């Protein structure tokens, strides 16, 4: 299995509070991604990174920010959590962008109450 | 607008028979297609992929077929086993748009293989 660790694995938070999810990789892969999974939508890309301090938005980026200060860590922050951000969040890594083949972490289940 | 669609939310087949999962896409710029399998409480795992220059790719019990003119791909599992019961996601990428490895996923199809 690719070395990807997401933390926390589960979190319950209140509306309006900030939340940071962490993705840590030991594979030294260049590309890292944050997706969210929701019923009826599959997985949707939130943000991605193509190098240290190089990030860009995905299709559902509103309300989220990311940072990548080291190759191995990719942080996803919800500045002010809303109930619509209740979801399962997956981090993924890819060595090469060419084929799009990515390896996923175990996921973080976030509930905003 | 859903660029990758899996119109069957679920599929049930008998052990030993063939499972066929379908996927349609709308963006003609997609040039690489992948299937991922997902068990509950786990992350998706890569299963098989196909480049747009091919129409078939086979890996053991799994075969993916691509029909570019119809913008349709399918995953065949033969023979199906109870351990194949999972959610299957179709995904597509456009390597030309900045080559960032971004994937566009379908909604998923839940496969149940009955013993």
Order of helices and strands of chain A: EEEEEEEEEEE
Shape of chain A: globular
Level of helix content of chain B? under 10%
Number of helices of chain B: 0
Q: Quote the distance from N terminus to C terminus of chain B.
A: 38 Å
Question: Overview of this structure, please?
Answer:
The complex is a heterodimer of chains A (113) and B (115). In chain A, strands 2, 4, 5, 6, 9, 10 and 11 form a seven-stranded mixed sheet that branches. Chain A has a four-stranded antiparallel sheet with strand order 1-3-8-7, with no helix packed on it. Chain A is 0% helix and 58% strand. Chain A is mainly beta and 113 residues long. In chain A, a hairpin with an 8-residue loop joins strand 9 (87-94) and strand 10 (103-104). The termini of chain A are far apart. Chain A is globular and about 40 Å long. By secondary structure, chain B is mainly beta. Chain B is built from no helices and eleven strands. Chain B is globular and about 45 Å long. The model of chain B has no long low-confidence stretch (mean pLDDT 94). At the A-B interface, strand 4, strand 5, strand 9 and strand 10 of A face strand 4, strand 5, strand 9 and strand 10 of B.
List keywords for this structure.
heterodimer; A: 113 residues; mainly beta; seven-stranded mixed β-sheet; 0% helix; 58% strand; globular; B: mainly beta; six-stranded mixed β-sheet
Short description:
In chain A, 0% of the residues lie in helices and 58% in strands. With 113 residues, chain A is mainly β.
List the helices and strands and how they pair.
The complex is a heterodimer of chains A (113) and B (115).
Chain A: E1 4-7, E2 10-13, E3 19-25, E4 31-38, E5 42-51, E6 54-57, E7 64-70, E8 73-78, E9 87-94, E10 103-104, E11 108-112
Parallel strand pairs in A: 2-11
Antiparallel strand pairs in A: 1-3, 3-8, 4-5, 4-9, 5-6, 7-8, 9-10, 9-11
Chain B: E1 4-5, E2 10-14, E3 19-25, E4 32-38, E5 45-51, E6 56-59, E7 62-67, E8 72-77, E9 86-93, E10 104-105, E11 109-114
Parallel strand pairs in B: 2-11
Antiparallel strand pairs in B: 1-3, 3-8, 4-5, 4-9, 6-7, 7-8, 9-10, 9-11
